[in-house]
DNA sequence: AGATCAAGTCAACGGGCGTTGGCAAACGGA
DNA sequence: TCCGTTTGCCAACGCCCGTTGACTTGATCT
């Protein structure tokens, strides 16, 4: 059942995501978030309890990974990378999460959960041995989060300069290999046609 | 010429690195750093001016990359990854830098400089076209910083569980490809024997 | 021995923060 | 229309932070 204050709640959440993404957890003040949402700081407390609770609500995030079951096995890396890039250019929640994770344990937990619950199954489906899924999802995380870090947080100029297609072309073989390559074989076999 | 206060200065710097690495820039308080160094907070101000100056001093960092000019071209990725892993397990300055970079522009500048000045030349030496060096150094950054982020900051369990040799085996082909692969050829050609 | 200066201690400041509780207005069911 | 509830605003609290300046101690040199 809708409440009269739903618009306010949404405005707070939107402002919170923006400030958390831009400034990180501690620099993003409740006062600044409230100002951006054009409401009083005390409203934030009323609706979300405290700053931690607000962050938890603002950091709700789903990757919405597509079902890759029917994709050609050789294209899984490419599709996954494309989806990642698209997903976090349209929504700065993940950047907020990344910025906050550096000091906020709850943000770390969230990221952990995202990779375990959302990337893990993809890895389980495409890895030669499903038992390796967590390790493979972890490797995927190192590359995808590293790219996001350099592009959206550190804004390293050469990484920002890449367009989406170039970036995907560089990263796809890496992800493909992390997902599917056999450990004791030629590490790059998976990249081959 | 050595000053009588050199021991104190060094103690402050060591404590600062520890606190910055563990807590990030804003959570690491001058008071906590001073307590760890067993001196008065005002000494920090006397010797380093302000918190920003202390951080700048604590974040002095060199990768000490080995000269890879004589290494077999096919092993450059492997050696580089090995050196990276070794380098930042022995010194938490880079973790401090990474944690602080999320909110501190000066930390971002430092990281930018490290990759431009220290990794760039390596890329210039091994890339097919030296003009691509910045882009290639940037790609190397996405993978190496992403790995450090997941392992030392987020502590993603599967990434922490990898030992150095396993990690190097996974990352080396990626770095090798980012440094040497030709853009419009088979992306994984560089990995081949 | 006394003068000089570096090294270290102490108490306090101003400011910004998260958070609280009281009070006014707007709404909605009876 | 009246009354309870929701929504919003305001002022303030207590806390901790970076930073300051005045003061004491101790080493060094003539």
Q: Helical amount among residues of chain A, as a percent range? A: 55-70%
Order of helices and strands of chain A: HHHHHHHHHH
Q: Tally the beta strands of chain A.
A: 0
Report the radius of gyration of chain A as a whole number of Å. Answer: 19 Å
The number of domains of chain A: 2
In oligomeric terms, what are we looking at? homodimer
Can you tell me about this structure?
Two copies of one chain form a homodimer. By secondary structure, chain A is an all-alpha fold. Chain A has two domains: 4-58, Homeodomain-like (Arc Repressor Mutant, subunit A), CATH 1.10.10.60; 73-183, no CATH class. Helices cover 69% and strands 0% of the residues of chain A. Chain A contains ten helices and no strands. In chain A, helix 1 packs parallel to helix 6 (93-101), helix 2 packs across helix 3 (41-48) and helix 8 runs antiparallel to helix 10 (164-180). The model of chain A is unreliable at 184-193 (pLDDT under 50). At the A-B interface, helix 1, helix 6, helix 7, helix 8 and helix 9 of A face helix 1, helix 6, helix 7, helix 8 and helix 9 of B. Chain B binds a DNA duplex (30 and 30 nucleotides) through residues 3-5, 8, 29-31, 39-46, 50-51.
